[in-house]
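Hey all, sorry for the wall of text incoming. These are the two entities for the joint prediction.
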Amino acid sequence: MQQAADEEGRSILNASSGSGSVAGIRTVTALDGPDRSSRMLLVDDSQESRELIMLLLARQPLVIDEAGNGHEALELCGRNRYDLVLMDIQMPLMDGYSATRMIRASEDDRGNSRTPVVALTAHAYEDDIRRCKEAGCDDHIAKPFKKKALLQCLARYLPGIEYE
Amino acid sequence: MNNVACEKILVEIDQELMQVVPEYLESRRRECTEIGRLLAIGEMKTIQTLAHRMKGSGGSFGFDEISEIGEALERASQLADAEGIKAAVGRLERYLACVSVTYL
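and here's what came out:
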């Protein structure tokens, strides 16, 4: 399983296209033009979960980059500035807690402003939520989630997110 | 699993998910076989990982029962409860054989 997940992570990296492109960048949409789109990093080891989220957000003014584990997330956060990071917690190689801690440490080192990090977790107990907060997450979405819950949460941090 | 006798379980899903739902269900069918293999070699940790993902994903795709089965499977794998794992896989196989999706 670990191996499969590792291979999946590499396949994301290998999916980059164009010279100088970084891991897994895929533009979802930019309804109002690039200057009005928010840029989001989606971190989840499950490709099917990433595809689901990409579809659910396809009509939102977002440009979304993908990472398959915490290491990839850190690499992308080092190269790009994001308006929000949607971070799965249970992942191989580096979990969401560690990745979020390292993102916060990097922000402190560089003097960068704090990027909102929203945890995606199938652990929705109080203790798990507390751990997310302690790691530096701003919010959390319990899995399995419905589209409305996802959009409602993102709308708290990003402009132009619409939900009925 | 084609011989499972069942009444159809009707599930309505938004058509925006049409391109990912068939593959999601197919992956769960493959996992039924995979979990049986893993159980035979005592690979509980990997079963736990698969179960955890199942629990976290089913409802988001529109299949709340798959999340419930994933939760039961995760609990059984944490306890190394082979009978519990077999029961959860059997429930998943029956569900997958009977589920019928309508896109709205």
